[in-house]
Design brief:
By secondary structure, the chain is an alpha+beta fold. 48% of the residues lie in helices and 15% in strands. The chain has a five-stranded mixed β-sheet with strand order 1-2-5-4-3, sandwiched between helices. It is globular and about 40 Å long.
Length: 170
Amino acid sequence: MSVEIKEYNEELKRRFEVEKERLKRVLGSDVVIEHVGSSAVGIGGKNIVDILVGVKATEEMEPVRDLLSGAGYREGHDTHPDRIFMAFRKNDDGTDRETSEGDLHVHIVVVGSSEYNNMLALRDYLRTHPEKAQEYFEMKKVFAREAGYDRKKYKALKAEYVKNLISEAQ
């Protein structure tokens, strides 16, 4: 699967707000819903809307996953014990498709966990340090080129950089 880094698309903010309202109806009021990732900061990237869904306890993660499955989300490969990853990517005719611009990615984690805290810390740091946010966007383009636009290689190259940004943020 390839990766393409694009300029920021303002429509992603609206896309998040619309989906947040839908998620509230599907999940109820016992979860925290936050916009995270590059689209929450206002910088370019894959132009995917990353949504953090915080639950009170690990036992609540699977029931939330099941509710999201019923709403059209599919569990993805990035699921691990501390996070369930879900993606909503549909063609106009309702069929599933590969990841592309405007997709919705949900990360189900426990509120207060390191995964939860790191996602929010990175978002807030980049929002308050625009020079770092711009540097991150430029590095994404470098990583994509170095990876030959291969998504898996791109993520591996980006991981250490993001880890360092999170350390700066804390």
